[in-house]
Amino acid sequence: MTAIKNVLYIMCDQLRRDYLSCYGHPHLHTPNIDRLAAAGVRFTRAYTQGTICGPSRMSAYTGRYVSSHQVAWNGVPLPLDEFTLGDYLRPAGIRTALVGKTHATPNTDAQQRLAMTPGSSEAEQLNEVGFEAYFRHDGLFPDDPIFDSKREGSPYTHHLRGLGFEGRNPWHDWANAAEGDNGEILSGWKMRNAHLPARIPEQHSETVYTTDRAIDFIGEQGEQPWCLHLSYIKPHWPYIAPAPYHALYSKDQVLPAVRPAPGAENDHPVYNAFRQHEESLNFSREEVRLNVIPTYMGLIKQVDDQLGRLFDFMQSNGRWDDTLIVFTSDHGDYLGDHFLGEKEFLLEPAVGVPLIVRDPRPQADVTRGTVDEHLAETIDALPTFLDALGLPAADHRLEGRSLIPLLHGQQPAWRDFAVAEYDYAFQAPARERLGQAIDRCRMYMVRSERFKYLAYDGYRPQLFDLQEDPQELHDLGTDPAFAAVREQHQGYLFDWLRGLKRRTTISNQEIDLRGKRFRYGEPETEKLVPIGVW
Amino acid sequence: MTAIKNVLYIMCDQLRRDYLSCYGHPHLHTPNIDRLAAAGVRFTRAYTQGTICGPSRMSAYTGRYVSSHQVAWNGVPLPLDEFTLGDYLRPAGIRTALVGKTHATPNTDAQQRLAMTPGSSEAEQLNEVGFEAYFRHDGLFPDDPIFDSKREGSPYTHHLRGLGFEGRNPWHDWANAAEGDNGEILSGWKMRNAHLPARIPEQHSETVYTTDRAIDFIGEQGEQPWCLHLSYIKPHWPYIAPAPYHALYSKDQVLPAVRPAPGAENDHPVYNAFRQHEESLNFSREEVRLNVIPTYMGLIKQVDDQLGRLFDFMQSNGRWDDTLIVFTSDHGDYLGDHFLGEKEFLLEPAVGVPLIVRDPRPQADVTRGTVDEHLAETIDALPTFLDALGLPAADHRLEGRSLIPLLHGQQPAWRDFAVAEYDYAFQAPARERLGQAIDRCRMYMVRSERFKYLAYDGYRPQLFDLQEDPQELHDLGTDPAFAAVREQHQGYLFDWLRGLKRRTTISNQEIDLRGKRFRYGEPETEKLVPIGVW
């Protein structure tokens, strides 16, 4: 086959770039993801546009930076005007479906303002950010409707109940909890329980069930074209894995934390504020790291095993040969590096993501199994899909760029820097500690070939030399020797802000057409609006 | 009365700030607009956000900069997500109506994508950018549906037909044309005809009919609260006035063109490209200026006379005392200054607008009849209305600020600079002459207390010292002595770009609430999502 008919867009949640063997992890072997890398291209400098789920994913689904799509944090609705994957692919006859997580939040207020009918296909499509929800599983079902208004109706919860896993919240009580010596439920939310096995057998766990649904979907489609977003919630917390994955890795295999030496610590006020968060304080304790990280590794290993099953299936039915496959993550996890937990700061453990792309066509043979050091971004996925499928580029909206030329061994002009954003307005502890106004909590990362520059509202910038200091231990933000580098990167940020796409309701082609008709008129007529004529 | 019940938002089209006697015109006496200024505050440094109709007006109606609302030129649809005046006022029970022009373009593609019902009240409201179209009159009815899809159905055209003014296009053939010696129609589009009277008696002209409709609306409302956007198409071209206004002013009363001395000319490439436009070449000829400008003045005089009638009416029925009145313009007109015609460049004749605000409350007595030199912007109107009416500020969307504190003699912290934008992607002649890509045609004005800085994609900036050179005849864009000033203003632009409101689907109050609930939990419960807990 020489054409791409389908797209498989695989995303893990909270998977660090360096927790895969193809990216160099010495103990965590991920042969199936490595097999995809050997059959495609592995990008070593891929960045997410935002280091938490909602912003990152909306960048993936819209092909636009966070400042453009406006979803600055989780639970923020996407504007109705934003086009998503399905808007681009569905009109071309490509069934565009979701299996797993999107973290989409319905924009109910906007729909009400426009008097859209709740439950209509258009409303549902907006609520699912353009996907057909073949199986939606956001994987977070605490007792609050902000996070999932369909909590009671979650298909995974139904599935568990059908299997006899009862209770008010089977997702929590079975799939994300362990059991104590006396049968008591030990919550997976509590990191002290991370070393215990989940109460659920592996075959009913989220990762396996999600993979089952993906295989179902692909099988059902037969030869009909599709785009599937296979979006695993794991290794995202709660950090708890079903047997045997809870015990595959030992404390000995936990890598040392990456932290500045005493006296050389990062003393930036925003960084310091994040260090005071509960997860940061806990992950700064070795006891926590040693209890959590082996399980984090086990959860990744489980995903890898399941991807092996999926890839085998695709090789058996021909889909391996007519499907563009992308594997990535929405963001990483500090796991105690830099004295931080979670991911809400723009250092490499959070903002760096794995990115592996396999183009099955012969034109990509030249790069198969190679490593690519170009700066890639999460927003590149959608333009890559459009390019692979031969669809128009929509360059008045899309801010990413197609990776296909790189996969085909070409030397396209490329970006000089990647940008990520984070808005800590939503993090009341950090914001209040810093005393910043809600409109003044923006952080920007500008990552060039060599440097990473972090800009803050109201604070000095930070600078790291990733060539000399890949672990970002030495902040050059005040070093006079690097003043010119900082200025250069501030200039990049300025250029980036100026270049954001802010004319999304009219295509460039239409602008060109109108501009000419308006001023020159049709060949046989006068100008449409004859202004300025004597 | 001590409360404001109503808002009258008067806008002229293409009215230069300096073509009113209260702003210093020596020959054009506008006693009624001056009377408003004497009863309110006259802002001497008010700027539009964009120098053509669509962008400027969408900034007025959304309270947001052009880069935020995305309407970069005429005929570009407003995104459906943008809130407009009516969205803010109507829920408070304030009838929000239009009499005259908005230059709104229906966002039909977006409405179809959401399956909105054509003709539904929500669709109509979006098409009218939030106004109830009591009488819409965009004033441009050439033979092309881009500019007015309701051409045949325009109420003003119907009115003319009802009076016996027939023909394919009565707006053009009667209201905007003169008559030759042999009864032939001489088009108002041709500036050579500007000195002739329109074929229509004054009482049926656009300016009078528009005023009639405003008086009808205000009368109908009685004591019920309202916001009326009274939006005159004049003195916008076609430059042709009904008798006696076509002959009120003589060639002797045309002020000399403001132009650099030979050898000291502005040599910026973008400026030079605009100088090559047909209207610029024509307005550079004295013959054209002398034929057009007296009529331009006559059209303004007619507006002033009509406003006198309206203000008398409001004083007679009590509305003068409970209505906030704003008088402004959407942009100016070069009229040959700087060798330019039209308005598509960011010098003072185009970007400076008159702005007069009358707050009827006693708290504003302290400033009545005074002049205010604060930098004001078109986007300030909407926040001013909300403030005057006691409605919430919507500060996650609105980028302007209320002028009420200034009207009440307070000393609020104020902006350091005003910003305007222009995108010449739509002007094929300039763009093609410069060889710029469609995405690289943006211009920005940063106007501080003393200086004006103009930034261009791909070209050097310009700088004018408005204190020493108020006519902008000496471009300091390459003067080494002003390097620090240019850098300061580039910094302003950088700050402005960073500060644009890009989180419009969630209010600041909601962010604060969620941020606290998310991290701290309710008093009696644990954190909602117990991340990072040991």
List the topology elements.
2 copies of one chain form a homodimer.
Chain A: E1 6-12, H1 31-38, E2 41-47, H2 53-62, H3 66-69, H4 85-89, E3 95-100, H5 108-113, H6 121-127, E4 132-136, H7 155-162, H8 170-175, E5 177-179, E6 185-187, H9 206-221, E7 226-231, H10 269-275, H11 278-283, H12 286-317, E8 323-329, H13 348-351, E9 352-358, E10 370-377, H14 381-389, H15 404-407, E11 417-423, H16 428-434, E12 442-448, E13 451-456, E14 459-465, H17 483-499, H18 508-520
Helix pairs in contact in A: 9-12, 10-16
Overall number of structural domains of chain A: 1
CATH evolutionary superfamily of chain A? Alkaline Phosphatase, subunit A
Largest sheet geometry of chain A: 8 strands, mixed
Using the coordinates above, name the CATH class of chain A.
Alpha Beta
CATH architecture of chain A: 3-Layer(aba) Sandwich
Uncertain segments of chain A are: 144-149
Would you give the CATH topology of chain A?
A: Alkaline Phosphatase, subunit A
Question: What level of helicity do the residues of chain A show?
Answer: 25-40%
**Which two chains touch over the largest interface?**
A-B, 87 and 87 residues
User: Helix count of chain A, per DSSP?
Assistant: 18
Classification by helices and strands of chain A: alpha/beta
Quick one: overall form of chain A?
Answer: globular
* Number of beta-strand segments of chain A: 14
Question: How far apart lie the N and C ends of chain A?
Answer: 63 Å
Spatial ordering of strands, largest sheet of chain A: 4-3-7-1-8-9-2-10
Radius of gyration of chain A: 24 Å
Q: Overall mean pLDDT score of chain A?
A: 94
Taken as a percent bin, the fraction of beta residues of chain A is: 15-25%
- The protein's oligomeric status is homodimer
Keywords (chains A, B): Hydrolase, Metal-binding
GO molecular function (chains A, B): metal ion binding; sulfuric ester hydrolase activity
Protein name (chains A, B): Alkaline phosphatase family protein
Organism (chains A, B): Pseudomonas eucalypticola
